[in-house]
Protein 1
Amino acid sequence: MKPRPFEYVRPDTVDEVLELLAEYGDDARILAGGQSLIPMLNLRLIEASVVIDISRVAELGAINFLGNRFEIGAAVTQNSLMAHLSLKQELPLLATALSFVGHFQTRNKGTVCGSVAHADPSAEIPLILAVLDGQVTLRSKRGERVMTAATFQKDLFTTGRAPDELITSVTFPTVGRGFAFREVARRHGDFAIVAIAAVQVENGVMRLGVGGMTGRPMVRRIVAEGAVAAVAEWAEELGGFEDLHASAAMRRDIFRKLAPRVIEEAIRCAA
Amino acid sequence: MQTKTPPEKILRKEDASLLSGRGRYADDLPVPVGTLHAHVIRSPHAHADIVRIETQAPLAHGGVWAVITGEDVRKLSDPFLTAVKVAAPQWALAIERVRYVGEPVAVVVAETRYIAEDAAELVEIEYAPLAAAIDPEEACEKSAPLVHAEAKTNEVSVREFSYGDTKAAFAKADRVIAMTTTFPRLSFTPIECYVVVAQHNAAENSYDVLANFQGPFSIHPVMARSLRVPGPKLRLRIPPDSGGSFGIKQAIFPYIVLIAAAARVAARPVKWIEDRLEHLAASTSATNRTTRLEAGVAADGRILALAWDQLDDCGAHLRAPEPATLYRMHGNMTGAYDIRHVAIRNRVVLTNKMPTGLIRGFGGPQLYLALERLMQHIAVELKLDPLDVIKRNLIPAAKFPYRTAAGALYDSGDYPRAVEVAAGQGRLDELKRRRDDARAAGRIYGIGFSAIVEPAMSNMGYLSTVMTAAARDRAGPKNGAVSMATVNIDPLGAVTVTADVTVQGQSHETVLAQIVSAELGLAPDDIEVILELDTAKDQWSIAAGTYSSRFASGTAVAAHMAAVQMRDKLKGIGAKQLNVLPEDVELAGGKIRSRSNPDNALPFGRVAGTSHWSPVMLPEAMAPALSETGVWTPPELEPPTHDDRINTSFTYGFVFDMCGVEIDPVTYQVRVDRYVSMHDAGRILNETVADGQIRGAFAQGIAAALYEEFSYNEEGAFLSGTFADYLVPTVSEIPEVEILHYESPSPFTPLGAKGLAEGNCMSTPVCIANAIADALGAADVTLPATPRRIHALMEGGEKT
């Protein structure tokens, strides 16, 4: 379980990172917290001729609370975001979900943007980004662009990032009043079999997000009244995938039974 | 008989080292100058012919010293000896054919592991895939692909046994109640995987190996024979610490031979560290078993007879000590119950899966899953209380020592009383109240019980039960189990202890210091315990090692004997110096003194050092008291009788568990609400250590009940190759367990103590399965009871 040889570079500025990405493109890999990248390198599942370590790029290390949104730099670890003084107050949904991300030890290294970039379909952070209708900011030598969460994550481990682009930050809007989050996993800290997040955007109207059912987190506007039927219908549409831990039918059943409870909780939370 | 109970709550001697990162594990120890690193290339196929192996390119890669293939292994070694004579040779590397995913095919030896793994990608291996035999029952059919063509069958051993008059007993029964159970494949994945550092001395043709092998050392001759050297030419050294073992580190032995051969080919010392992927795919697995068990039952739940039909799937090779998973439990196939009529059919099948072997509990989890599920099922069928069915069949206290139908000699116990204590003091009432409250609120709740006998310290002859009596006669007698420990005294009277165990965290140092210090009138901290083992210099027998919970009734007794021998000599020496009779001498408080006049005393060190400084002062005809070895071999461990009765183990503890579980109808998860575990392991040597062992076995029992399973698909692909797929419960998933003790000292050992390290691996999986069956009203509960399986049970749909 040793990686193939690679070059290791640790630039100090974003411009240097973009320079390297422009030169190496797909042959380069961004190393932030390394919680997914390093195992994949060790398992020789992926190739990298250059590993660019961004963990000490100062301009990527900021958490900015901008009144109606949080902007999280690419080098910010999950634990440092959890420790941010305003997070629980201003974005309790994200604060809650973060405690389900891996374990304390992995959150010390793992980054918020790294989880978004990795795009695991059952990961909590991409789900919350999607349900809050957040954004991903990407930069390359060609310039900067912003993608919505819905357009950024395409499928299982697949995103809209171009090979020469760096995710510089993700932005979580502090929308809605009343939220709830539940996930079902085999063990504490495991990737979710099904993860469900709800945020009330208008009275009795939810944005409901679900992870673990398909190749990416899915979000739908659901009216609380009649949610049971709406969720049941949606569960059938999503289908759900099969793995060792859960059949598609089990994923559908969990989603069908749990989502209405999550919606109720969000409404109770708002009240 | 010794009746002293050593003090309880003695802190562990090991803790200071282990908790401050000063343990000395195999990978921490220095290696010889010039040591190279090995990487093992493994089969991606369940079954395939090896058409061609191309090694030119990797050999040309910078830093690579050797690439070893099956042809080298064929030149330098022989296949491993097996317990059953069958034409299914296992070599240290696959030769001509691979038979399971993960089977070693070649070894790259290079200056670093990184280079070895890079070069491994350059080794071209051409395979011609073959159909694989995966399902054990299908593998028994005539049409199945043969795992070893030379054997002409996959069903390599079939033995039938009959004790009492089973036919007549079944005829008398009011009902025949039967059940089929399957025990899954799993392992208990030590944190530290296998480590081997091997050297070959070409001048002497001898091998020197450091490995975290756990024993039993009956495997040493197997390795020496394979390497074609006499035993002394294979020096095996075991490091002072091992990072978990659980039986699994017995199965390192093919790799000891493999890396030794690699060192010979490379002409340099070679180190290999098994990584987690290798460990999960190819180290070893508990044996999956299909059991059909029938009971002839009276209307009141009394069992008159049992008929066992057991099929063990040992994987691709019958690696030693298999098929011991079947035979280790042979004497106690009737568990805690007084059943005199038993028929047993044991079958062993080979399949294209990883070879199986010892895993903590070894045979017990398989046995009791069938027996205790059947007990619950009998209660359901007869509309009786499950605990009443258990109680009605327990062996009465007056019958001890109790000879079972199949020949085990249960040393001591009062099973009905232990059950009464556990269920009493409001515990069972509380459990029932919780169940009733939960059910009244519409929740899904069930109660489970299990009562098991926990054998410890294996009879080295039990495995010969797999042979017919005639074959046993030809092979020569095998029986007993020798334990050895030595007490040494240095010139200033400092005491050290060595013993025939391998250390894996069982607190042997603490307990040995406790036992020896008590006899010598010293404090436990005065005793140095040194347990790294070197086959060239230390005491050992084939029974040495740490397995089958042999310490408390084996090595601990040997240490006690050595300490008593030393104590008695020191009394004689002291008597002469104190001018009193030896009978008047006692060893206490660090002094050797007159019992009648305690002021007439000498420091322990002064008397103990006499043999070094002034042997002339010793009593006449006494050999110097420098080193005393206790050698313990209990006479109860007899060979199998001509009618196949065998006392498979030396001590037999008792475990009674009861639990309540709740099943979440939304997440399909099983939550253990309450768990009570009653143990009778004879006299408890150290309660802290005992409870630690019980908690560890309980955690692994939970793992087997709810989480851990090696999965293969129909083609033999291995599906649980990482810790994301193979789920080990962590501290968050392990419920609290209430531990109770009931002490029935064993009359067969001077310490009265029995092994207790495996009981919950045997009792807990089935106790939880019984609670799930009670909760769901289902008979067919497959372990591990994963949410996926619970979902299938509750919502119908596919059986998985």
Note: The longest strand of chain A covers residues 194-202.
Protein 2
Amino acid sequence: MKRVWFTFSLFALLGAAMPVLRNGLVEQPHYFPTVAYDFKKNPITSQKVELGRLLFYDPILSADNTISCASCHSPYNAFAHTDHDLSHGIADQIGTRNAPALFNLAWQPSFMWDGAIHHLDMQALAPISHPREMGEEIGHVVQKLQAKALYPPLFQAAFQDSHVTGQHVLQALAQFQLTLVSCHAKYDSVKLHKARFTPQEANGYALFKQNCNVCHREPLFSTYQFAKNGLPIDTTLDDLGRYQVTQKPADSLLFKIPSLRNISFTYPYMHDGRFKKLYQVINHYTSGIVPYPTLSPALQQPIVLSPAEKTDLIAFLLTLNDKVFVFDPKHQFPKKILMPSEGF
Amino acid sequence: MLGKHEAHARSLVIAGFSCAAGARILNKGHPMGGRQGLDGGDVPPVICNPAGHCVSSLLKMRDVDHQGKTRQVGRALLTKERLLQPRHWISAGNLQGHILPLLLLGLLTFGILQAQTRPVHIRFAPTYEGAPLVLGAHYRRPPQDSVVFETLRFYVSELQLLQDSKAVAAMAPRHRLLDLEDAASLTFALAVDPKQSFNKITFQLGIDSLTNVSGALGGDLDPTKGMYWAWQSGYINFKLEGKTPSCPARNHLFQFHLGGYLPPCANLQVVELPVYGVPTEIVIQFALDEFLAQIDMRDTYEVMRPSPKAVQLAGCVAKTFKCVE
């Protein structure tokens, strides 16, 4: 009997602990799948999120203190880098890929266009260390943060330890990014029966389910798997995508399927930002696919859309724009805190 | 029978003062302590951390009787021990009230607990042709070459002393970064039950896959330690860098960053070495000259990503570890 009670109270405790792990800071719509991120190992607190937000916007993370995460992941572009096909880092160096938008990261099992990063905590290490992005070294970042008067008290508040460590820097950055949940687009209102699609959007939705949903699966609008979408290789970059991680020939030219949420805010499109306009993307899928042998099975059958259908499809895709998310003040630059401390 | 009592005494560590009394009887009756007449099979496995705290024994309130049945060690046993307790202890308690003897008992408990484990020092000793390896020193490399080492750093995980297949002591925390630049990182102590013999030492070279996918970790696993790949998630298990004129790379620099946790390039190696006698120090030699002898530096000099080559090299590293007397 004792054991039954013990088990019962254990489950009750776990049940009670679940919302605490996210502290109401990470939204979870009921129609979203379960998260991939393990909140038990890094329970969300407002102090850690706030510290993470400061770090995200502070150029101290880069070698010459000029580039912050937000330089290439701007909140007004759903944390993508509008107007740049390839992003630029310290000393105006150009990278090799388009900066992906950041939202709904708790649901993603891997990160980067090639999935080289397997955990959100570890993701920030890549841009910090890349010579063309931030060109820094995490150990030196830790030293700089320790030396800047602003940070030790914030690390104390967030982690009960004013001694800055790589672990805590990365966890704080991950926590802020976990709060970037996009679930307030018109599509979401329709899901919640608070709005209705126009006839044009409804037709676009039907076309979407028929042609796009296999890879860009709703409600996240991506399976976050990798696929070869038939783009001809850009020989100025020779980017082989997933192959560079796995070294498997079958993974050559496979890239992460991006989410279609916030599509108007995240142009240009594709891993190398080659398309500036949405209609160029649609035209690629209807008439531009190169029939590589390892082309995604979902694209083996040609997608046929009339001009009117393309317009309807785009009308639906625009319902995935989430202005509530993009203009949410709690995700923006922490002006009050960071501005006075400029000039370190 | 003595072994039986010792086992009880250890199991009752959690019970505090009573334990001290029990342990004292043993010491009085048999000054040699537990070294005599111990039937290893009777004693529950004790895993100790280097600080000397018996980890598992603190959790164990059960013991095994002669018939091999598990039973609760409770009040009855304490009573039995009290009966066996020498009388002068009790009279001393009456004289001074209860506080002083309890304090003394507490101190004694502490002393006995300390005495119940002995340290076995583990020392990793990178060498070159038998002499301790020095970073930056020039070494002869047969047949007609030289070599300078600049970095040697690797993870040792789950190090245990074993009696056959039974763990006698384990390293804590589970992962340790050994860095030739930090001499203190190469040595540490395990607390071992003095009655317990052991004939093997085992450890993993590197970081297991589960730890690899557990997000940002601290201590020796903090990514600031330079043993985490930024461009592709995963720990570097073993890092060796240096220069040798026959290496065709820029500045003749060779770099081995061995890691990777996913099959088919899972890099983790398990090392098991025999230990003879009852040593107070176990020296695990890593002879760099023997390691390099297995490699043709003309075509193997930059291995810095998970690959079959990295697995092969990690195998060479693992084979090079030797226990020296």
Note: The radius of gyration of chain B is 25 Å.
Protein 3
Amino acid sequence: MAKIIVTPIGGNGFIFGRGSRQISSEVLKKVGKENIIIVSTIDKVGSLECLRIDSGDYEVDESIKGSIDVIIDYKEEIIMEVVC
Amino acid sequence: LIDLSANESPYEHMEKEFKFTNKELNRYVSHTELEAMLKELSAYTGCGQKHIFVGPGTDYLIQKILLNNFMDRSLVILNPNFYGFTAFAKKLNMKIKRIQLKPPEFKIDWAGMGIEKSIIVVDNPNNPTGKPMIDKDELEKLLVDNIVIIDEAGFEYSDSTFADMVKDCGNLCITRTLDKAFGLAGLKVAYMLVGQAISEKLNKGADINRPALTISTEAIRNRQYMLDTVSNTLAEKRILSKELEKLGFKVYESQANYLMAYTEVKDLGLKLKSKEILIGDLSETWLRGYYRISVGNGKENAALINELKAITITGTQ
């Protein structure tokens, strides 16, 4: 199964959409939330209130929103909320 | 220097309050002395002595639990936090999961987190928000297959505790400290109330030194200083909160001896530091514009407000 590895944009926290449009909503729909791997430094993600998505497809955004794990170090993660 | 950054009590002890002498410093702490402290703690907490462990600071006590229970468990902590034991957990090769706190409510949907077979550490009230982070119902559900450590460092200010659950919940641990309300940060003494499943894996030793043990025992026995200073701090907190709000700060309701406040004023922590006033600047490790201000005595709080007035008058740039 395909995986998407992505890092949020510093400052606004977008993972898909807005300043990060390389991956379309069609691709996101096929890959699914369970195959999205988010990585970041704790400095970047810890200063964000939440992660954001605006893929252009309401249903895709809804399927990804909610709690998600972000890898911040070896054997270390932070649970962030994704909002639309 | 006015230090409002570390949540300490601003009230000094009177010298006559403690009877410690330098006698017997050449001897190790005896079991009898430890028993005396456990007896006082038992009366204070309502928990049996077998549930009580004493140590040099909360980090030390939590490390003691991790060392004996880390086998297949992840460590779950909140972000931000101000603990030192996470570095210890990394050395134990534990998996660490943080939960980001976010405005406006700073609440956690524990049921939606899917946490299992973990050691969960929750400070209640939370540092830095001052808010309660978990209720009894949520705690009972987490205890089904997790070890839960509730850090009640602010218990004397919040008057809210889960200590009565310890005798029936083997996986529950409550940590408290004498650093804050008892005004003994310089001694760094903490204790924990632990359920049977945890306590049976721990050695009960006298892990603190004689001066700390002697003074702590006396402080717990004679609690008037603590009660008076907590009352003063709560009164000062109400005044400080109102003054901060008048200056345009968003002040969050707090059950602890500190207030979390939000402001658009840039580099507030640095501006106050240049005036020899220290507050907790959360912009460095968490969200921009958030600050944690320990409630000082009346004089310290007035000095803070005066400096803040001068800073806010010059604008938010």
Note: The mean pLDDT of chain B is 94.
Protein 4
Amino acid sequence: MTAGLGPRYEHRARRLLRAFPRRYRESHEHELLSTLADVEGARRSPRASTAIDLVRAGWAERIRTHPPFFRWLWYRLGGKLPPEYRAWMLDDLRGRWYGTRRCLAAMAFYMTWCAVMFIPLGPLYHFPARAWIEAFFEGLISYAVLAVVVVPFFSGRMRARVLRQHGIDPTGAPLMPDRAFVPPAFPVRVATRAAPLYVPVGWGLCIGWALAALVVVVNNPGAGAIPLAISGIVFLASTSMLGYYRRSMRERTLTAQFAVMPPGNAPVVLAVLLAGLPALGATLGGPGLAGISLIVGGVGPATVTLGRYARRLEAELGRAVPSRWVHTRFAPAPPEHV
Amino acid sequence: MREATYLILTALADGERHGYGIVQQVDAISDGRVRLGTGTLYGALERLQNDGWVRATREEVVDGRTRRYYQLTGDGRRALIDAVEQLEANARAARVRLAGA
């Protein structure tokens, strides 16, 4: 409660202040409410001009601190952001529906890519535009379902991964002095609390997904089923890693995670990009190209992912890892964490 | 420099002030012509702090209201002086031309 503000005014003002980024609200909300109380505290609710001014200023602040488009896209697809956007990134990670937002952005990107690729490939394979549009929307719908229904279960894990990728300890333990920074503790708390669900839910979804793909392929050997099958395989391969991940969540010491950081998602993003072309080729050209697309689109990224976790496992068992994976600033392990 | 920024810097030129103090000063400086919105004020303060022209000095809670005080930095003072000189030069040029017409 801010002195001098009626409950109705304060409620409305707090809602208007949501236009500002979260980090800004956390440090300035009370100050802003106090100034509003000084300026027009006697009113029952904010003046319309005040409301417009607050929303406009809040969005201007959001836009001012947002990373430029291509940096943002790179980050959304799993890349790293430079340190000057760290405050923005922490807000993004703490925000609601993180996994879904990330997944939908990836979908928009992939769909744009497919649409652009149709221009050279469509005529090449004499593929009717109508059928291509159908396949496009099939992909769109399955991706959207994935984003809204499946991904929220993994949001916590995705958050923790991005934090680690940027050298931030997801539990909020202090880093080395020169990087002293206390991030929110909850991503990992959420991730660990949901851990017992990972394996049953993951496998249930995988099997359901694979069966659905199979039914579609058997009943309708049309083009749109192939990308569905590919995504099913990728999904299966990555989710089979969940069991290992869950165990490691419990047992692995934090310092082990920090001392060894496998490469980020860049290889996967690259592989998916490369896979886009043959996958589309398969959609357009039929079973001849399906084999290629299966190898590049399904096995490629899956192998990269599996390889990364295998190397991490090796590292934990004490085997040698490439020196470029070892982040020296995390290397001296404080004994109390071991 | 935008007018709101110019007026905020002017309001801070003779010492530190809190948010509402700045609003009142801007009102006085502009003879009531500019009503600084709270959002505009804090948006501008955030930008000015990032540019290193303004800094927050202290914070106090009076009657349940949080007051944070802001102050011009050396860079902010220099930027304001530059802006004033620019405006003066523009005004002089305009006056000379108007007198000659």
Note: Chain B touches chain A through 20 residues (CB under 8 Å).
